[in-house]
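Holo prediction — zinc ion.
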Amino acid sequence: MAIGAEGRFYDQLETMSAEVRRDYLDGKLREAVAHAYDNAPSAREIMDGAGLTPGDIRTVRDLERLPITRKTDLIELQKKRPPYGGFLAMPPEDVARVFISPGPIYEPLHGSNVRWFAKSFYAAGFRKGDVVVNTFTYHLSPAGVLFHEALRDCGATVVVTGTGNTDIQVQAMLDLRVTGFVGTPSFLMTVIRRAGEMGYDFRRDFAVARAWFTGEPLSPLVRRTLEDDYGINTCQAYAVTEPGGALAYECPQKSGMHFMDDYVIEIVDHQTGGQLSPGEIGEIVVTPVHNAAWGLLRFGTGDMSSYTTEPCPCGRTAHRLTGIIGRTGDAVKVRGMFVVSRQVEEAVAGSVSRFQVVVSRQGERDEMTLRVELSEPDADRERLSVELANRVQSLCRVKLDRIEFLAAGTIPDDQPRVVDERKWD
Ligand SMILES: [Zn+2]
């Protein structure tokens, strides 16, 4: 078990000061870049193509100069240069495991360096004495095996259930007095429902006290149901398979997910690759700095988020992701800021039944129009206009130019929520 495992924190990395963290990550990054350049032919080609040598990437800031590699690039490169696309950065016989993501993408992992996820389970309260069902798949993807080992690093006993077989899961959870659940929120809800159908009262008959989720968003409503109705403490993490697992995790404050210091995480403008400031929405780009087998630099996840540097009362000092709010495909840039359909959805929830954002161009200025169909046709439109405009501005950080109220049924179901009507030629 790691340092500090009996205390509030899993390891010392979690509480580094800003200066120490900056030096730590810059140092790790320099090592990872030099290692990839020397050992992974594709990493070297990408850097050569950008006119860069490892000496040019001294700090996280310098990463901006390096092109982003996306899932589609990985798939293509692995076809051209099987099996690892030229990103294997060590002799093949030293690779300990190979995971397979849809694509297929083959992901090599070196040896024993899989401890870092443990801090996410530790922050969620998993300890020795816990008996935990790990309902993630144990084949192909990294989730099952790596989360299993991370739970073991926290001292917990793991029940190797994997996905599916709801009845067996329910029975095992009852018979083994399971205290922890690891999986998706929807699967836990399925388990609870099934237990009810089998004649049990989940709250009375089961001992599940904590749950750790990844793989799908945890809605505030489901979280409240699990915590208030079933007494289950919930925590979530953000994980991506290609760069190797959980990248950010919630602490007991549950207000954003702390970055793991085993990766360099950037939030960037996905069109230019430029790094963004706290609060600005962009693509999450990851460089693993812990896996010597994988010379992957600047992997573009396609997920959109923003981050905050506000201090967290939990004492962990890493910046926090504010949540995943969409994919790069659902995002459109308006006056320099990305607007994501899910954010607009959040802003208009409750008052409108359907909406559409239309971005157009008037002279040199982007214009954003919100078109809505009201849930109640008699609603006070003047008041609602002000409310919607304020909510959109505070959530999306872009001011609306106009709101159009439409008759019910005007916006077809198959229309995109965000429409870009600007012409650039
Ligand atoms: Zn925290």
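READOUT: The longest strand covers residues 352-362.
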